[in-house]
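Case study 2.
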Amino acid sequence: MNAADLKDLIAAGLSCTHVEVDGDGRHWSAVIVSAEFEGQRLIQRHQRVYATLGARMQTDEVHALSMKTFTLAEWAAASPPN
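Prediction:
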């Protein structure tokens, strides 16, 4: 598993406008922006991402994933102006 593979898996299972993934092959960090997070608490957002990874989380293919999840509005507010 590499960063591109993990990014593709997340994007395939969740409608994302932005996904960044970094890691060492087992321990990952991700920034994920999706309209699907609207109205969800943080734990619900993380559960949604874990659901897209399915068995990969349970088989230890993805050992650890740290996430920052944003709605479109949250991302726009957090992003510096151009």
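The longest strand covers residues 27-33.
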